[in-house]
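Dear Dr. H.,

I hope your travels went smoothly. While you were away I took the liberty of generating a structure for the chain from your last submission, since the lab meeting agenda had it listed for discussion. I wanted you to have the full record in hand beforehand rather than looking at slides cold. The sequence, exactly as received, is reproduced here:
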Amino acid sequence: MRKIFKAILTSILCFGLLFSAFACENGSGFNGNSTTGNSQESPSTESDGDSTGGELNEEYVSIGAFYTLEEAYENDWLSQSDLLNIAFYYQGSENEDFQPTPKDPEALSKEQILEIKKTYLCDVLKISDGDVEKINLYKYYGTYNGMIAVGVTDTYYLYDIIVNPEYEIGGVVFYNFCSSDIRLWWAKDVLAGEDNVEYKKGNFYSFEEAYNQGRITREDIMHVCYYAFGKVYEGEKGIAEKDLREIEFQPTVELGSLSENVLADIKQNYYEENKSEFYDGNGNKLGGVENLQIDFFGKYGAAYVVSVNCDLWEYNCSVWVESIDGIAWIEGGAAFLVFQHAE
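The corresponding predicted structure, in token form, is as follows:
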């Protein structure tokens, strides 16, 4: 009788232990990594990662932003060559002659991976105090102009995946493409502008573009040459300097000076248009608007004629003769640019 009682008691205890193990394994109490269903799992208030039990998850702040391939390409942050490289690392290439540019860097640092996971938690999932261990960065496709191309997902949700057999971006075809497979991550200070300074949007035009579009006239070019070189010449593009023909010219428009606000607008717009040049291949910032020097050669109607120098860059020291509508000048270093505020 005593043996029978012991057997019954042992069976009851074993059953209880088995039930407890089963409950923990399947996430009862939602303190595990269950992804059953499409609803978001309640984030754990205790860290499931490296921290000790009982410690609250850290409140994360995102320092970056995600963009799609289309957004990056349409904003000229990615070239077609960049897309071909990403496609190669995503699916390989049908062209046996195609040689991809090696990834630079070859692999992401732990710090970069952590920041990307933080952005995913904060901006994609909207869980700033979530668990980075539940974010899976499963693929790295390379870094392009400071933009890091990655595949990243999470275990908070189950997702309905939509796969396109063929998907074209910028003339490059991606096969069996899922848009969430490739995200472009950039540090926010690359995107937001220098210190989030407020400025008036504008556009830059080359000297020739501005002339062809009627933004400046032949007489305006003569004024620019006078204020830049003290003389005005006639001649054809590419001729020798000795063959330039000086002509008499008396300016009718005063040079004046740039206001502080317009100067700031020109610098900020130039920085925004060339922002990728202010970062190295690893996304590290090299400089900003403080490295820009603006030389001013007059305002003609709504057009400001300037040249922009950056002390971060090296310039070509060679010189040659440029010409528009018969007015010639010696080009070298930073070229003339025309800036106009957006209408």
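Two observations you may find useful: The radius of gyration is 30 Å. The first helix runs from residue 2 to 25.

With kind regards,
E. W.
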